[in-house]
Amino acid sequence: MSDWRSLAAERLGGIETIRDFPMSRLTTFQIGGPIDLLVQPQHTGELQRVLQFCAAEGVPWMVLGLGSNLLVRDKGIRGIGIKLAGEFLEWRMDGPTARAGAGLALGDLSRETACLGWSGLEFACGIPGTVGGAVFMNAGAYDGEIGQVLTAVEACYPDGGYVRLNASDLELGYRFSRFQREKAVITRADFGLRPAAKADAEARITELTCQRQSKQPLEMPSAGSVFRRPAGYYVGPLIEQAGLKGFRIGGAQVSPKHAGFIVNAGGATAADVLALIEHIRREIRERSGVELVPEVRVIGEE
Ligand SMILES: NC(=O)C1=CN([C@@H]2O[C@H](COP(=O)(O)OP(=O)(O)OC[C@H]3O[C@@H](n4cnc5c(N)ncnc54)[C@H](OP(=O)(O)O)[C@@H]3O)[C@@H](O)[C@H]2O)C=CC1
Ligand SMILES: C=C(O[C@H]1[C@H](O)[C@@H](CO)O[C@H](OP(=O)(O)OP(=O)(O)OC[C@H]2O[C@@H](n3ccc(=O)[nH]c3=O)[C@H](O)[C@@H]2O)[C@@H]1NC(C)=O)C(=O)O
């Protein structure tokens, strides 16, 4: 037990915390060693206390969404993992604006807004992350992207400062937002939606769900696309044409269904996945001259 955790028990009294929580239970890959302390603030005041504690004691921290874009190393994560709870899981319509807490599952927001007759978030029905994770990544699927509907966000900075930012200030690009170079906790996001026939919005969701189920290995643990799209190429065909579909290192396998995914075919370690990522990168570099860049975030102690 390290000293800072005893201090955290005192200073963060009243906030839900769990020690040594296995990240394999918090990631869609089902891989990763323990995080020192999982902290679940219910509202902004609690979040500010956590950030102020980390700043004062020099404890590293990160935000955990639904772990859908994370590969956590086998030794786990040193420091605090912030998992937004309570009011950060709520949402409401305010005129045509959906105001959502950042801890909410984006897919739930997509389906619930469609069900109420609002259009704009249908593309996101199958995106497996949170609202906050999706803003952080400017997540996209099926020609839709968070930046197309996002109007504003609220965020808490490491010194406890709370700001509201317009979407135009977020430097949104392909799988990029300014939060990737500037440490902050996204706490809320506003999406500008259009009124629509409920049946049309729901039909689009059904269509996209079928498309995704037929093309992606949703039945296996994974972190979605492993690599970013290189300019002028799709990743799947590059890997497939290199004969790597189904290729396996330990429990990590190039999905036989979609070569852009690595799946945990049973008992995979982070080391297996990292070795497979490097093998794929080397093969594609030598064969096609294309440098594949991971899209999955690799974190934790080396
Ligand atoms: N299109 C698709 O089919 C798929 C898309 N994705 C996308 O990947 C993203 C992953 O989302 P999710 O599972 O929630 O996130 P994760 O738990 O995978 O976290 C990934 C990173 O996002 C950052 N992050 C998450 N939430 C917040 C927040 N509230 N404020 C600031 N930073 C945050 C953290 O950065 P830090 O470490 O710096 O704190 C974290 O390391 C989403 O955009 C998801 O939609 C994932 C799989 C498939
Ligand atoms: C899964 C993710 O997002 C996905 C998102 O769901 C889909 C659907 O819109 O489009 C992106 O995948 P992608 O670039 O692999 O696109 P896909 O539409 O699946 O495939 C592109 C093309 O490659 C072909 N393809 C794909 C896989 C394969 O094994 N072989 C193959 O030939 C497909 O038939 C298609 O013609 C996103 N990935 C990135 C990195 O941009 C994620 O971000 O984690």
Automatic annotation (TrEMBL):
It comes from the Bacteria. Its EC number is 1.3.1.98. The active site is at 175, 225 (proton donor), 295. It is found in: Cytoplasm. One of its GO terms (biological process) is cell wall organization. InterPro entries: FAD-bd_PCMH, FAD-bd_PCMH-like_sf, FAD-bd_PCMH_sub1, FAD-bd_PCMH_sub2, MurB, MurB_C, MurB_C_sf, Oxid_FAD_bind_N. Pathway: Cell wall biogenesis; peptidoglycan biosynthesis. Residues 30-196 form the FAD-binding PCMH-type domain. It catalyses: UDP-N-acetyl-alpha-D-muramate + NADP(+) = UDP-N-acetyl-3-O-(1-carboxyvinyl)-alpha-D-glucosamine + NADPH + H(+). The keyword Cytoplasm applies. Cell wall formation. Belongs to the MurB family. This is UDP-N-acetylenolpyruvoylglucosamine reductase. It comes from Hydrogenispora ethanolica.
